[in-house]
Amino acid sequence: MNEASPSPAPRLSLKEKIGYGLGDTASHFVWDMVGTWALVFYTDVYGIDPEVAALILLVARLWDMVTDPIMGVIADRTSTRWGKFRPYLLWMAIPYGVLAVLTFSTPELSDNGKAIYAGVTYMLLMTVYTAINLPYSSLAGVMTDSSEERAELNQYRFVFAFAGQLVVTGSALTLVNLLGAGDEAHGYRMTMVIFGVISVVFFLAAFMTTRERIEPPKDQKPDLKVDLKNVITTRPWVVLVAVGICSFTLFAMQAAVTAYYFEYYIGDMGEAERFNIVGSIAIIVAIPLAKPLAARFGNRNVYIVCSMFTAAFYGLMFIPTPDQLWMIYLFNVLGKISFAPTAPLLWTMIANTADFSEWKRRRRATGLFFSAATLSMKLGWGIGGALAAYLLGAFGYVANQAQTPEALLGIRLMFTAFPAVLYLVAGVLLVFYELDLETLRRMQADLKARRAAEESGAAAEGAPGAA
Protein backbone atom coordinates (compact mmCIF):
# COMPACT_ATOMS: atom_id res chain seq x y z
CA MET A 1 0.00 0.00 0.00
CA ASN A 2 1.48 3.31 -1.04
CA GLU A 3 1.67 6.16 1.45
CA ALA A 4 -0.14 9.31 0.41
CA SER A 5 2.40 11.86 -0.68
CA PRO A 6 1.98 15.44 0.49
CA SER A 7 0.64 17.78 -2.14
CA PRO A 8 2.39 21.10 -2.57
CA ALA A 9 0.81 24.10 -0.89
CA PRO A 10 -1.12 26.24 -3.38
CA ARG A 11 0.61 29.48 -4.28
CA LEU A 12 -1.43 32.49 -3.32
CA SER A 13 -2.37 34.82 -6.17
CA LEU A 14 -1.16 38.40 -6.30
CA LYS A 15 -4.78 39.55 -5.98
CA GLU A 16 -5.21 37.58 -2.77
CA LYS A 17 -1.96 38.87 -1.28
CA ILE A 18 -2.84 42.47 -2.08
CA GLY A 19 -6.38 42.00 -0.80
CA TYR A 20 -5.11 40.54 2.44
CA GLY A 21 -2.60 43.38 2.79
CA LEU A 22 -5.37 45.98 2.48
CA GLY A 23 -6.85 44.58 5.69
CA ASP A 24 -3.85 45.77 7.66
CA THR A 25 -3.93 49.14 5.91
CA ALA A 26 -7.48 49.37 7.24
CA SER A 27 -6.27 48.52 10.73
CA HIS A 28 -3.50 51.10 10.65
CA PHE A 29 -5.72 53.97 9.58
CA VAL A 30 -7.32 53.69 13.00
CA TRP A 31 -4.65 51.97 15.09
CA ASP A 32 -1.92 54.49 14.29
CA MET A 33 -4.23 57.41 14.99
CA VAL A 34 -4.86 55.89 18.40
CA GLY A 35 -1.26 54.87 19.05
CA THR A 36 0.38 58.08 17.84
CA TRP A 37 -2.11 60.84 18.53
CA ALA A 38 -4.63 59.62 21.16
CA LEU A 39 -2.53 60.60 24.17
CA VAL A 40 -1.77 64.12 22.92
CA PHE A 41 -5.42 64.39 21.77
CA TYR A 42 -6.66 63.47 25.25
CA THR A 43 -4.25 65.73 27.14
CA ASP A 44 -3.80 68.77 24.88
CA VAL A 45 -7.10 68.89 22.94
CA TYR A 46 -9.76 67.30 25.17
CA GLY A 47 -8.12 68.53 28.39
CA ILE A 48 -7.84 65.20 30.22
CA ASP A 49 -5.18 64.91 32.94
CA PRO A 50 -2.18 62.73 31.83
CA GLU A 51 -2.64 60.34 34.79
CA VAL A 52 -6.32 59.88 33.90
CA ALA A 53 -5.38 59.26 30.26
CA ALA A 54 -2.84 56.68 31.45
CA LEU A 55 -5.56 54.92 33.46
CA ILE A 56 -7.88 54.82 30.43
CA LEU A 57 -5.18 53.20 28.29
CA LEU A 58 -4.29 50.68 30.98
CA VAL A 59 -7.87 49.66 31.86
CA ALA A 60 -8.62 49.09 28.18
CA ARG A 61 -5.65 46.73 27.97
CA LEU A 62 -6.83 44.80 31.04
CA TRP A 63 -10.19 44.44 29.30
CA ASP A 64 -8.38 43.07 26.26
CA MET A 65 -6.99 40.26 28.42
CA VAL A 66 -10.60 39.07 28.66
CA THR A 67 -11.87 39.78 25.15
CA ASP A 68 -8.94 38.50 23.09
CA PRO A 69 -9.04 34.84 24.24
CA ILE A 70 -12.84 34.88 24.08
CA MET A 71 -12.73 36.14 20.50
CA GLY A 72 -10.16 33.50 19.61
CA VAL A 73 -12.46 30.78 20.94
CA ILE A 74 -15.50 32.24 19.16
CA ALA A 75 -13.66 32.50 15.83
CA ASP A 76 -12.36 28.92 16.07
CA ARG A 77 -15.95 27.73 16.55
CA THR A 78 -17.48 29.88 13.82
CA SER A 79 -18.69 27.97 10.79
CA THR A 80 -20.07 29.80 7.75
CA ARG A 81 -19.92 29.41 3.98
CA TRP A 82 -17.15 32.04 4.08
CA GLY A 83 -15.08 30.15 6.65
CA LYS A 84 -14.21 30.81 10.28
CA PHE A 85 -12.35 34.12 10.14
CA ARG A 86 -13.32 35.99 6.94
CA PRO A 87 -16.91 36.76 8.04
CA TYR A 88 -15.74 39.08 10.80
CA LEU A 89 -14.12 41.38 8.23
CA LEU A 90 -17.62 41.83 6.80
CA TRP A 91 -19.57 41.98 10.06
CA MET A 92 -17.33 44.33 12.05
CA ALA A 93 -16.06 46.80 9.43
CA ILE A 94 -18.77 49.44 9.88
CA PRO A 95 -18.85 49.34 13.73
CA TYR A 96 -15.05 49.72 13.63
CA GLY A 97 -15.23 52.86 11.49
CA VAL A 98 -18.05 54.42 13.54
CA LEU A 99 -16.33 53.87 16.89
CA ALA A 100 -13.09 55.31 15.53
CA VAL A 101 -14.89 58.59 14.84
CA LEU A 102 -16.58 58.60 18.26
CA THR A 103 -13.22 58.03 19.98
CA PHE A 104 -11.86 61.23 18.44
CA SER A 105 -14.98 63.29 19.17
CA THR A 106 -15.13 65.88 21.95
CA PRO A 107 -18.60 66.38 23.43
CA GLU A 108 -18.88 69.22 25.96
CA LEU A 109 -18.83 67.51 29.35
CA SER A 110 -17.48 67.98 32.85
CA ASP A 111 -13.96 66.75 33.63
CA ASN A 112 -15.39 63.49 34.99
CA GLY A 113 -17.74 63.24 32.02
CA LYS A 114 -14.86 63.65 29.59
CA ALA A 115 -12.90 60.89 31.32
CA ILE A 116 -15.90 58.55 31.24
CA TYR A 117 -16.69 59.31 27.59
CA ALA A 118 -13.06 58.82 26.55
CA GLY A 119 -12.79 55.60 28.53
CA VAL A 120 -16.02 54.07 27.20
CA THR A 121 -15.42 54.94 23.53
CA TYR A 122 -11.80 53.81 23.68
CA MET A 123 -12.73 50.47 25.28
CA LEU A 124 -15.53 49.88 22.76
CA LEU A 125 -13.17 50.68 19.88
CA MET A 126 -10.58 48.24 21.20
CA THR A 127 -13.28 45.55 21.68
CA VAL A 128 -14.39 45.88 18.05
CA TYR A 129 -10.72 46.01 17.02
CA THR A 130 -10.35 42.59 18.66
CA ALA A 131 -13.45 41.30 16.90
CA ILE A 132 -12.12 42.24 13.46
CA ASN A 133 -8.33 42.17 13.76
CA LEU A 134 -7.91 38.85 15.55
CA PRO A 135 -9.85 36.97 12.83
CA TYR A 136 -7.97 39.00 10.21
CA SER A 137 -4.60 37.99 11.68
CA SER A 138 -5.72 34.37 12.07
CA LEU A 139 -6.73 34.29 8.42
CA ALA A 140 -3.05 34.19 7.39
CA GLY A 141 -2.69 30.90 9.25
CA VAL A 142 -5.41 29.17 7.19
CA MET A 143 -4.86 30.67 3.73
CA THR A 144 -1.81 28.43 3.21
CA ASP A 145 0.19 25.83 5.17
CA SER A 146 3.53 26.90 3.68
CA SER A 147 5.81 28.89 5.96
CA GLU A 148 7.46 30.44 2.88
CA GLU A 149 4.10 31.50 1.45
CA ARG A 150 3.08 32.86 4.86
CA ALA A 151 6.28 34.87 5.03
CA GLU A 152 5.55 36.37 1.61
CA LEU A 153 1.89 36.95 2.50
CA ASN A 154 2.96 38.77 5.66
CA GLN A 155 5.46 40.79 3.64
CA TYR A 156 2.56 42.09 1.55
CA ARG A 157 0.58 42.62 4.73
CA PHE A 158 3.22 44.78 6.33
CA VAL A 159 4.11 46.72 3.20
CA PHE A 160 0.46 47.74 3.10
CA ALA A 161 0.37 48.17 6.88
CA PHE A 162 3.26 50.59 6.91
CA ALA A 163 1.86 52.35 3.84
CA GLY A 164 -1.19 53.03 6.02
CA GLN A 165 1.08 54.11 8.84
CA LEU A 166 2.92 56.38 6.42
CA VAL A 167 -0.32 58.14 5.49
CA VAL A 168 -1.57 58.43 9.09
CA THR A 169 1.60 59.52 10.82
CA GLY A 170 2.71 61.63 7.86
CA SER A 171 -0.54 63.49 7.18
CA ALA A 172 -2.76 63.41 10.28
CA LEU A 173 -1.61 66.72 11.77
CA THR A 174 -1.76 68.41 8.36
CA LEU A 175 -5.34 67.16 7.90
CA VAL A 176 -6.25 68.22 11.44
CA ASN A 177 -5.03 71.75 10.76
CA LEU A 178 -6.59 71.89 7.29
CA LEU A 179 -9.99 70.45 8.20
CA GLY A 180 -10.13 72.11 11.60
CA ALA A 181 -9.27 75.62 10.35
CA GLY A 182 -8.13 76.58 13.84
CA ASP A 183 -10.47 74.17 15.68
CA GLU A 184 -8.29 71.19 16.59
CA ALA A 185 -11.15 69.16 18.03
CA HIS A 186 -13.16 69.45 14.81
CA GLY A 187 -10.02 68.74 12.78
CA TYR A 188 -9.34 65.49 14.64
CA ARG A 189 -12.94 64.36 14.24
CA MET A 190 -13.10 65.05 10.49
CA THR A 191 -9.70 63.43 9.94
CA MET A 192 -11.00 60.32 11.68
CA VAL A 193 -14.13 60.35 9.50
CA ILE A 194 -11.90 60.12 6.41
CA PHE A 195 -9.69 57.39 7.89
CA GLY A 196 -12.71 55.48 9.20
CA VAL A 197 -14.39 55.35 5.79
CA ILE A 198 -11.17 54.14 4.16
CA SER A 199 -10.84 51.44 6.83
CA VAL A 200 -14.34 50.11 6.14
CA VAL A 201 -13.74 49.96 2.36
CA PHE A 202 -10.38 48.19 2.74
CA PHE A 203 -11.68 45.58 5.20
CA LEU A 204 -14.50 44.76 2.78
CA ALA A 205 -11.94 44.43 -0.02
CA ALA A 206 -9.90 42.00 2.13
CA PHE A 207 -13.05 39.96 2.78
CA MET A 208 -13.90 39.71 -0.92
CA THR A 209 -10.44 38.73 -2.20
CA THR A 210 -9.24 36.09 0.33
CA ARG A 211 -10.04 32.43 0.89
CA GLU A 212 -9.58 29.94 3.76
CA ARG A 213 -7.96 26.57 2.94
CA ILE A 214 -6.60 24.97 6.14
CA GLU A 215 -9.02 23.23 8.49
CA PRO A 216 -8.51 21.51 11.88
CA PRO A 217 -7.93 17.73 11.86
CA LYS A 218 -11.13 15.97 10.83
CA ASP A 219 -11.38 13.98 14.07
CA GLN A 220 -10.86 17.02 16.34
CA LYS A 221 -13.73 17.51 18.81
CA PRO A 222 -14.37 20.96 20.37
CA ASP A 223 -12.91 21.09 23.88
CA LEU A 224 -12.15 24.54 25.27
CA LYS A 225 -10.36 23.25 28.37
CA VAL A 226 -8.01 21.10 26.30
CA ASP A 227 -7.39 23.91 23.81
CA LEU A 228 -6.54 26.44 26.53
CA LYS A 229 -4.18 24.00 28.25
CA ASN A 230 -2.62 23.17 24.92
CA VAL A 231 -1.99 26.84 24.08
CA ILE A 232 -0.48 27.90 27.40
CA THR A 233 1.81 24.87 27.52
CA THR A 234 3.17 25.40 24.01
CA ARG A 235 6.53 27.03 24.73
CA PRO A 236 7.02 28.72 21.34
CA TRP A 237 3.67 30.45 21.87
CA VAL A 238 4.62 31.59 25.38
CA VAL A 239 7.89 33.02 24.10
CA LEU A 240 6.13 34.94 21.33
CA VAL A 241 3.63 36.40 23.81
CA ALA A 242 6.52 37.80 25.85
CA VAL A 243 8.24 39.08 22.71
CA GLY A 244 5.02 40.71 21.54
CA ILE A 245 4.47 42.49 24.85
CA CYS A 246 8.02 43.87 24.83
CA SER A 247 7.83 44.89 21.18
CA PHE A 248 4.51 46.66 21.32
CA THR A 249 5.29 48.33 24.63
CA LEU A 250 8.27 50.01 23.01
CA PHE A 251 6.30 50.87 19.85
CA ALA A 252 3.54 52.46 21.91
CA MET A 253 5.88 54.38 24.17
CA GLN A 254 7.82 55.83 21.28
CA ALA A 255 4.70 56.60 19.24
CA ALA A 256 3.02 58.27 22.21
CA VAL A 257 5.92 60.67 22.87
CA THR A 258 6.80 61.43 19.23
CA ALA A 259 4.70 64.59 19.20
CA TYR A 260 6.14 65.70 22.55
CA TYR A 261 9.72 64.98 21.42
CA PHE A 262 9.47 67.14 18.32
CA GLU A 263 7.41 69.91 19.86
CA TYR A 264 9.43 70.39 23.05
CA TYR A 265 12.92 68.95 22.36
CA ILE A 266 13.38 69.64 18.64
CA GLY A 267 11.13 72.70 18.71
CA ASP A 268 9.13 71.89 15.57
CA MET A 269 5.96 69.79 15.76
CA GLY A 270 5.75 69.71 11.95
CA GLU A 271 9.06 67.81 11.87
CA ALA A 272 7.27 64.86 13.49
CA GLU A 273 5.34 64.19 10.28
CA ARG A 274 8.48 64.32 8.12
CA PHE A 275 10.28 62.05 10.58
CA ASN A 276 7.43 59.52 10.48
CA ILE A 277 7.27 59.62 6.68
CA VAL A 278 10.99 58.89 6.30
CA GLY A 279 10.84 56.10 8.89
CA SER A 280 7.83 54.44 7.26
CA ILE A 281 9.46 54.57 3.83
CA ALA A 282 12.59 52.91 5.26
CA ILE A 283 10.46 50.08 6.68
CA ILE A 284 8.50 49.59 3.45
CA VAL A 285 11.73 49.38 1.44
CA ALA A 286 13.33 46.88 3.84
CA ILE A 287 10.35 44.56 4.53
CA PRO A 288 11.00 42.45 1.37
CA LEU A 289 14.25 41.34 3.00
CA ALA A 290 12.24 39.19 5.43
CA LYS A 291 11.49 36.25 3.11
CA PRO A 292 14.99 35.66 1.65
CA LEU A 293 16.67 36.18 5.03
CA ALA A 294 14.25 33.80 6.77
CA ALA A 295 14.65 31.18 4.04
CA ARG A 296 18.44 31.33 4.46
CA PHE A 297 18.84 31.72 8.24
CA GLY A 298 15.44 30.92 9.78
CA ASN A 299 12.77 33.18 11.30
CA ARG A 300 14.18 33.08 14.81
CA ASN A 301 17.78 33.90 13.93
CA VAL A 302 16.81 36.79 11.68
CA TYR A 303 14.54 38.22 14.36
CA ILE A 304 17.26 38.04 17.03
CA VAL A 305 19.95 39.74 14.94
CA CYS A 306 17.57 42.42 13.68
CA SER A 307 16.44 43.21 17.24
CA MET A 308 20.04 43.65 18.40
CA PHE A 309 20.88 46.06 15.58
CA THR A 310 17.67 48.02 16.14
CA ALA A 311 18.42 48.32 19.85
CA ALA A 312 21.88 49.71 19.07
CA PHE A 313 20.61 52.33 16.62
CA TYR A 314 17.85 53.55 18.94
CA GLY A 315 20.27 53.75 21.84
CA LEU A 316 22.54 55.90 19.69
CA MET A 317 19.62 58.19 18.83
CA PHE A 318 19.69 59.52 22.41
CA ILE A 319 23.03 61.26 21.72
CA PRO A 320 22.23 63.95 19.08
CA THR A 321 21.24 67.47 20.11
CA PRO A 322 18.33 69.37 18.46
CA ASP A 323 20.68 71.01 15.95
CA GLN A 324 21.94 67.56 14.84
CA LEU A 325 18.65 66.56 13.27
CA TRP A 326 20.39 64.77 10.38
CA MET A 327 21.93 62.36 12.89
CA ILE A 328 18.54 61.66 14.49
CA TYR A 329 17.15 60.88 11.02
CA LEU A 330 20.14 58.66 10.20
CA PHE A 331 19.86 56.50 13.34
CA ASN A 332 16.09 56.29 12.90
CA VAL A 333 16.38 55.11 9.29
CA LEU A 334 19.01 52.52 10.21
CA GLY A 335 16.85 51.36 13.12
CA LYS A 336 13.76 51.09 10.92
CA ILE A 337 15.66 49.10 8.26
CA SER A 338 16.94 46.73 10.95
CA PHE A 339 13.47 46.37 12.45
CA ALA A 340 11.57 45.89 9.17
CA PRO A 341 12.06 42.11 8.67
CA THR A 342 10.81 41.36 12.20
CA ALA A 343 7.32 42.75 11.50
CA PRO A 344 6.16 40.01 9.09
CA LEU A 345 8.26 37.33 10.80
CA LEU A 346 6.48 37.71 14.16
CA TRP A 347 3.12 36.88 12.59
CA THR A 348 4.60 34.07 10.51
CA MET A 349 6.01 32.54 13.70
CA ILE A 350 2.61 32.81 15.43
CA ALA A 351 1.03 30.87 12.55
CA ASN A 352 3.78 28.28 12.86
CA THR A 353 2.95 27.71 16.56
CA ALA A 354 -0.58 26.66 15.51
CA ASP A 355 1.07 24.15 13.13
CA PHE A 356 3.35 23.03 15.96
CA SER A 357 0.31 22.27 18.13
CA GLU A 358 -1.29 20.23 15.35
CA TRP A 359 2.00 18.40 14.76
CA LYS A 360 2.67 17.53 18.40
CA ARG A 361 -0.84 17.14 19.82
CA ARG A 362 -3.11 16.72 16.79
CA ARG A 363 -5.17 19.75 17.81
CA ARG A 364 -5.45 23.05 15.97
CA ALA A 365 -6.96 26.24 17.42
CA THR A 366 -5.69 28.92 15.03
CA GLY A 367 -7.84 31.73 16.44
CA LEU A 368 -6.80 30.99 20.00
CA PHE A 369 -3.12 30.98 19.06
CA PHE A 370 -3.50 34.28 17.20
CA SER A 371 -5.31 35.77 20.18
CA ALA A 372 -1.85 35.71 21.78
CA ALA A 373 -0.54 38.00 19.09
CA THR A 374 -3.37 40.51 19.31
CA LEU A 375 -3.45 40.30 23.12
CA SER A 376 0.28 40.88 23.45
CA MET A 377 0.06 43.67 20.87
CA LYS A 378 -2.73 45.51 22.64
CA LEU A 379 -1.39 44.80 26.10
CA GLY A 380 1.97 46.16 24.98
CA TRP A 381 0.33 49.22 23.42
CA GLY A 382 -1.64 49.78 26.61
CA ILE A 383 1.38 49.37 28.86
CA GLY A 384 3.54 51.54 26.62
CA GLY A 385 0.93 54.28 26.26
CA ALA A 386 0.02 54.23 29.95
CA LEU A 387 3.68 54.15 30.96
CA ALA A 388 4.41 57.10 28.67
CA ALA A 389 1.54 59.09 30.16
CA TYR A 390 2.58 58.20 33.71
CA LEU A 391 6.24 59.04 33.10
CA LEU A 392 5.30 62.36 31.50
CA GLY A 393 3.65 63.28 34.77
CA ALA A 394 6.47 61.82 36.87
CA PHE A 395 9.09 63.82 34.95
CA GLY A 396 7.05 67.00 35.45
CA TYR A 397 5.45 67.51 32.03
CA VAL A 398 2.90 70.35 31.86
CA ALA A 399 0.78 70.64 28.69
CA ASN A 400 1.31 73.59 26.33
CA GLN A 401 4.21 75.12 28.31
CA ALA A 402 8.00 75.21 28.03
CA GLN A 403 9.29 72.03 29.67
CA THR A 404 11.84 71.68 32.46
CA PRO A 405 15.17 69.90 31.82
CA GLU A 406 13.81 66.92 33.78
CA ALA A 407 10.70 66.69 31.60
CA LEU A 408 12.80 66.94 28.43
CA LEU A 409 15.10 64.19 29.70
CA GLY A 410 12.10 61.94 30.31
CA ILE A 411 10.73 62.59 26.82
CA ARG A 412 14.12 61.81 25.25
CA LEU A 413 14.53 58.59 27.25
CA MET A 414 11.07 57.37 26.25
CA PHE A 415 11.77 58.15 22.60
CA THR A 416 15.19 56.47 22.37
CA ALA A 417 16.84 54.63 25.27
CA PHE A 418 13.83 52.88 26.82
CA PRO A 419 12.70 51.39 23.46
CA ALA A 420 16.31 50.32 22.80
CA VAL A 421 16.34 48.28 26.02
CA LEU A 422 13.05 46.59 25.10
CA TYR A 423 14.32 45.72 21.61
CA LEU A 424 17.27 44.05 23.31
CA VAL A 425 15.02 42.09 25.68
CA ALA A 426 12.82 40.89 22.79
CA GLY A 427 15.89 39.58 20.96
CA VAL A 428 17.11 37.69 24.02
CA LEU A 429 13.69 36.11 24.57
CA LEU A 430 13.71 34.67 21.03
CA VAL A 431 16.69 32.48 21.98
CA PHE A 432 14.09 30.26 23.73
CA TYR A 433 11.87 29.91 20.62
CA GLU A 434 12.55 26.33 19.53
CA LEU A 435 11.14 26.29 15.99
CA ASP A 436 14.37 26.65 14.08
CA LEU A 437 14.58 26.19 10.31
CA GLU A 438 15.28 22.44 10.42
CA THR A 439 12.43 21.72 12.87
CA LEU A 440 10.05 23.86 10.86
CA ARG A 441 10.76 22.02 7.62
CA ARG A 442 10.37 18.60 9.25
CA MET A 443 7.11 19.68 10.92
CA GLN A 444 5.59 20.98 7.70
CA ALA A 445 6.54 17.86 5.72
CA ASP A 446 4.94 15.63 8.40
CA LEU A 447 1.76 17.71 8.45
CA LYS A 448 1.43 17.64 4.67
CA ALA A 449 1.74 13.86 4.66
CA ARG A 450 -0.74 13.49 7.53
CA ARG A 451 -3.34 15.74 5.86
CA ALA A 452 -2.94 13.94 2.55
CA ALA A 453 -3.48 10.60 4.30
CA GLU A 454 -6.60 11.93 6.01
CA GLU A 455 -7.99 13.16 2.70
CA SER A 456 -7.25 9.81 1.04
CA GLY A 457 -8.93 7.95 3.89
CA ALA A 458 -11.98 10.17 3.75
CA ALA A 459 -12.22 9.70 -0.01
CA ALA A 460 -11.94 5.92 0.37
CA GLU A 461 -14.73 5.85 2.98
CA GLY A 462 -17.01 7.86 0.73
CA ALA A 463 -16.35 5.79 -2.40
CA PRO A 464 -19.19 3.65 -3.84
CA GLY A 465 -19.17 0.20 -2.34
CA ALA A 466 -17.07 1.21 0.69
CA ALA A 467 -17.93 -0.82 3.76
Task: List the keywords.
467 residues, 78% helix, globular, disordered N terminus
State the secondary-structure class.
mainly alpha
The amount of helix comes to over 70%
Roughly what fraction of the amino acids lie in strands?
A: under 5%
- Low-pLDDT residue spans: 1-8
Our measurement of the CA-to-CA distance between the termini, rounded to an integer number of angstroms, reads 18 Å
The biggest beta sheet is recorded as: none
Mean pLDDT: 88
Characterize the overall form.
globular
One letter per element, helices H and strands E, the order comes to HHHHHHHHHHHHHHHHHH
Rounded to an integer, what's the Rg over CA atoms?
23 Å
Topology:
Elements: H1 14-45, H2 50-76, H3 87-91, H4 93-103, H5 111-143, H6 147-180, H7 184-209, H8 224-232, H9 235-266, H10 270-286, H11 290-297, H12 299-316, H13 325-339, H14 342-361, H15 366-394, H16 405-415, H17 417-429, H18 437-462
Describe this structure in words.
- This protein has 467 residues and is an all-alpha fold.
- 78% of the residues lie in helices and 0% in strands.
- It is built from 18 helices and no strands.
- The chain has helices at 14-45, 50-76, 87-91, 93-103, 111-143, 147-180, 184-209, 224-232, 235-266, 270-286, 290-297, 299-316, 325-339, 342-361, 366-394, 405-415, 417-429, 437-462.
- It is globular, with a radius of gyration of 23 Å.
- The relative contact order is 0.16.
Short structural description:
This protein is mainly alpha-helical and 467 residues long. The N terminus is likely disordered.
